[in-house]
Structures
1.
Amino acid sequence: MVRSGRALASFLGLRGQWDIQADSLIEDGAQHLVLDNGLELPCPVRILQGEGDADVPWQHALKTYHALTGDDVTFELIKHGDHRLSSEHNLALLAETAEALCAYADTRLLA
């Protein structure tokens, strides 16, 4: 794991101003490590993760799920789903999930 912004910038082949920005990014990220300490969320959370995601391993999404300690947190692993969940079926699932969350918010905020 890269521990400093300068190491990250070097690894990515970035020079100059990127060193400072990468340092800030790493330092800021170190202050928000929810996987280590957990995170209580008072709102519903839906994690839809593609099993075939080459960019974010499903195991990482599952660790995130376990770190969230709210009462309404769900994790759904989508067989053959890619990073964008771009199949017609997956897009329908994303829309359905977003609509359900919006309806929940409407009932809570407008009540």
2.
Amino acid sequence: MNTPAENEDNMVNQAVHDELLKKFRVHFGREPEVVAYAPGRIEVLGNHTDYNEGYVFSAAINYGTFFAAASCSTSACRLVAGDLMKEKPAAFPQDWEPGLRRPQWRPLWLP
């Protein structure tokens, strides 16, 4: 059972989600194919040490980030900040195919 605060957070997130869909439809003239949400967190101790096997003290917060996307037939990518409704064009190489290449992670060495 949710607490009143959790119910309020869910309602706020639902309102943000609904506003995102509305702005996406108006700006792009169609429905998004993917909508995702990443919950927020704060790090009180150990920021940037977790990937070096260090200790981290973090906590979830009631803020997060929504993301909506749809495919297109070109290499163009149109990024829009939903709060500002400003667009930033970007492009991927013509031969880029998602999922075929994995990033090459390198260890972080500090002097």
3.
Amino acid sequence: MVRREMIRCFVKRPGQMGNIRFVCNTLPDLQQIVGGPIECIALDAKTILICNECGKHMNLPVNFPIEDDLIVGTAIITGLSSDDFSSLRWTEDRCRQFVGETA
């Protein structure tokens, strides 16, 4: 049996509060969460945002603003190692602040 690595992520769906979850670190599992092919946006040297690459063309609902753009559809914030995704180092509060959620 092949063991799939679980990584700690912050998952944010449009119109819902985000939360910390453990997800399988495989491309199919990440694609299933965002609903299609993934796009990766670096947030800092060890943190990355994963969203649906085709989300705007699919008219997915707006999730939150980022710089001069909008993230649509479900988004994942997770860690980044030298060659793969890894567990998130940010706190849940930091993630909530990033996506514009207030406590």
